[in-house]
Amino acid sequence: MSDCLFCKIIAGDIPSSKVYEDEMLYAFRDINPMAPVHVLVVPKTHIPSADDVNAENSAYVAKIFEAIPKIAASEGLTGGYRVITNCGEDGCQSVKHLHFHILGGKKLPDQLG
Ligand code: 5GP
Ligand code: ZN
């Protein structure tokens, strides 16, 4: 999608700090990290949110969840980490291209804010 920030990042039209990439996904550092490690993982196809995952595109999500342990290991997250996807208005999703936050590198708060 031409007006989507993360599609532009995937295309290389907007610079990003790449962590991992394969044919189906792209992982890069969040511009405003909320933890010592804060990586975003996105499918290389425009899926607006978790609410739009279906039988046609769920292979992208499976690939992302296969990559997450590899990314966590390469980032040194031996003590664990958190995977989050915000969805829609109530979920406070700000970028409307499905993405999974990987957060770690410290003990994370155990409560929602
Ligand atoms: P959301 O709030 O939609 O779950 O998360 C969007 C995330 O994208 C935020 O954590 C925000 O800091 C990050 N973000 C927004 N714009 C950019 C950008 O241009 N580059 C990078 N690397 N991250 C961005
Ligand atoms: Zn997009």
Notes on the protein architecture:
Helices cover 21% and strands 22% of the residues. It has 113 residues and is α+β, with helices and mostly antiparallel strands. Strand 2 (25-29) and strand 3 (37-43) form a beta hairpin. The longest helix is centred in the middle third of the chain and has 17 residues, at 58-74. The relative contact order is 0.23. Bound molecules: guanosine-5'-monophosphate and zinc ion (ZN).
Biggest sheet descriptor? 5 strands, antiparallel
* Number of β-strand runs: 5
Mean pLDDT: 97
Small molecules bound: guanosine-5'-monophosphate, zinc ion
Q: What class do helices, strands and sheet pairing give? A: alpha+beta
Kindly estimate the percentage of residues that lie in beta strands according to DSSP.
15-25%
From the spread of the alpha carbons, the general shape counts as globular
Count, helices: 2
Reading the helices and strands in chain order gives HEEEHEE
Point out poorly predicted stretches. Answer: none
The helix content, as a percent range, equals 10-25%
Distance between the termini: 32 Å
**For this entry, what is the oligomeric state of its chains?**
single chain
Tell me the Rg in angstroms: 14 Å
Biggest β-sheet: strands ordered side by side in the sheet: 1-2-3-5-4
